[in-house]
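Known limitations

Structure tokens in this collection are predictions and should be treated as such. Users comparing against experimental data should check residue numbering before alignment. To illustrate the layout, the record for Tetraspanin is reproduced below. The input appears on top and the generated tokens appear beneath it.
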Amino acid sequence: MGFSSRMDCCGQFVKYSLFIANFVMFVGGAIVFCLTLWTLVDRSFVNELLGTNLFSGAVYVLLVTSVIICLVSFLGCVGAGKEVKCLLLTYFIIVALVFVTMLIGGVLGYVFRERVQQTMRQEMRSTMALYGGRREITQAWDLTQERLQCCGVDTWHDWNRYGPVPESCCQELFGGQRKECTIFPTITNLHNQGCLYVATNFIRDHAAVIGGTSIAVAILMIFGMIFSCLLFNMIE
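Generated tokens:
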């Protein structure tokens, strides 16, 4: 395999451009993979409070496709370096399919960023009534309030309808000890911010990072497809 003398200079440029594009795609895919794992770990403690599977579905899609991106980009590097038309054709087909999947996942993550506050208030209020009765709901609220340092939906007064303020609302002291806030809750012994505001910003930030990164990688894939087509046609 090789280029004709007339196309040698241009062919070498396309070849190395494809190689560089795939290297950047590999790095981008690895970054998306790490970001999605980070999001899945951080999201686990609010999973019961989200009220929609749109965000988690988008994250799982991006997790799988980021792994495929890393593998396919390696295939593209081999195809470009060895100048194998079969590998380049396989690379183009797989990248085209992954491009659509990656773009959809990125768009879903970005769209969810704008829908967070609309869905979370209603779902969070409905789960407050189940606190103490369902283990997964209780753990989700406790972990959310502890890690995000918040209390209730909009304010700690939201808990007055359902019983005493949970201990997870109490401000933490040194050594894992907490101030007493369940009997006489005040702004000096519990978390003042509502969890809706804090969690909304938390999820929005995660969705924005994941969505933005995946869309950037998807755009890079366009260049990969273009260079692979050009190289495929130039190879004798």
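For this record: The longest helix spans residues 85-128. Residues 11-234 form one domain. Please report discrepancies through the issue tracker.
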